[in-house]
Batch of 2 targets.
Target 1
Amino acid sequence: MIDREQIGIRIAALRKKAGLSQQALAEKLGVSAQAVSKWEGGKNLPDIDMFRELAWLFHMTIDSIVEGDLTFAEKSSRKELPASVEALFPDAERRRLLQSLATYCSDTELYSIARELSEGSLELSVQASIVRTEGGACQKIGACQEGHLREKPEERKVSIPASLLGENTLRETAPYFAKALGEMTGSMEPGLRRIGELMCCPECGEKLSPENTDENKAVFICKNGHHYDVTDGVVYFGSREIPGELWSLYMKNYQDYLREQRHPGNPRYQMGAVPCSEVRWQMLKKLRPRVILDVACGTCNGLKYDLQRINWPCLVIMTDLSHRILKYNKRYFSEEMVNPYVDIVCLACDCAHLPIRDGCIDMVVSNGGFESMQSKMMAGFREGYRVLKPGGHAVYNISIVGDHDSENTKKWEYLYGTLDAGYSLHEKLYDIEEWEEVCKKTGYLSTETKEIYGELPAPDGDEFPFENEILQWMGEHLCISEKRPAPVS
């Protein structure tokens, strides 16, 4: 008899091993994501043509997917455990357990399971029941036909740690463990589960909790019934892009996004004896934050260089107005820049009114993000301070003028003032002393600044020379602002 549940488990395992979402697999097969979800949940079976496509796509035989023979187990478990998982377990027994689960789990899921096992918040065991009866008769309390009072049979429960199971037993029980673990956590990504502890409703301020709907979709709901869907992997708060700064017009599809990601960028922003990205990375490496918030991240061109090097468990929250750009970010960092240490969550929201509770973020970063918020720049900067933990740090770059009294800066300020109001990004052009005072008034205990490059020489004419990236004439400083630590009781 065909076991739909087991076939669904194997299809899900093969999909995860291939690094595909349900939506991505559906697109390759020409079916709906809902159809894939029903296969994996054991509600429906693919038709024979779909089985052929699945077998071809995953380099399996149809029999190995349907029957779960050794071909399936061997082919799908050849990959070694991720280094991040290996590092959590020095003992061979638990590594052997995780290797059996690796057949049915993605690397991210496997790391999440390994982390909980190492912290002692998760245990895997097999329950065995031992029952002693008297001659196999009269097994309930009461009188038998002879009128004798019989006792309830003796019963004992035995819990056997999964790590002690033999190879064959592990192979047979692993899909059941994997399915149960999936049901305990839902089909929700580890990052979405983790951020549930940090979120608050932007409408009423109550805690937002992640849930799975009957359609196996993730949603965040508060106790007052406000809910926000996870669409294309992005938690969507109904935000809209800024007029004149529409990603939807600039990047119409994922291929446009990839061209932008691979473009070397404006040489102006690569100036300086030490690149801004390297200064920022040295601070991240020193502090090893567990939760990082990227404010108005755009295509995440700042933090992406750090994401490749993080080698400690870390949750990275990308925030931006544009759902579209975050959808592409989610895909890019899930498919092309995977780091098993890092869980990534994308929030499409107003960064001047973040759906994140006070004082829960270890580090706020922004690569030109505050300035990209235009008229809301200072509101976004204050939000970054609000969500930081006491003792946390904001690491960001800021455009700075050289000296308001110099002829060069005066000329630039005049030219900048000739721009149409729709182009003006800053309400005020700050020199470094003025910006340090802003940080102090915001509440930061201290701000360390590092000049990356200085202001450009002003042009001779009376026309502003740039049509886009209009702040490139200004100098750039990287700032590290520390929030005052909590008082010692």
Target 2
Amino acid sequence: MRFKCIIVEDEIPAQTILKKYISKIESLELIGSFQTALAANEFLKNNVINVMFLDINLPDISGMDFIRTLHQSPMIIMTTAYASYAAESYEETAIKDYLVKPFSFERFLKAINKIGTTTNNEIETITENHIFLNVDKTQHRINYNEILYIESDRNYVTLVTKKGKLTYIASLKEWLDKLPKNVFLQVHKSYIINCNEINKLLSNTVFLENEKIPIGRVYKRKLLEQLSLK
């Protein structure tokens, strides 16, 4: 699998080294590079990533403080000029490793290999009416007809079924590409619903069992057409 990643580093030479190392790893895809946490935060509002290379010492807000502002965090590899920060960094569960500048490509590769062994959430097996989803090292069988809706929150999605919920790193687009299009429909920038589970529509809200899902203005027409209500 390929991991989408970003760099948050205010020193250009350090950015350059990270870009060079990332380009050597086939499983890494660099989709953004930022000099401040605030700029990265704006990017994360509309983009899904798997890995963040994050400097501890940044302008405006430190890397450690930035992590604590994230509702759900991607996997993080910290970069720092001070080895003394390592103990503090490991208190954050999203942090998989830290790199003390200057670091070699060998040390960088060791950090990347840690990522590869700590998650494999996006590997899945699809059949005609169900999917096996690997989350937290457990294969979950998800029957399509048991899915109520899928909610997106930054870099994560929550799959809500009649049996419970699963949250993991992914995007709504990935689900749109794999779900039966005659049953599932995106009704909001953050929601995909199972149209067979709709109980009622009220203005800009759709009801699924005891759940209320907002309908985005640009999605409403397509929903009405799919339900043959327009």
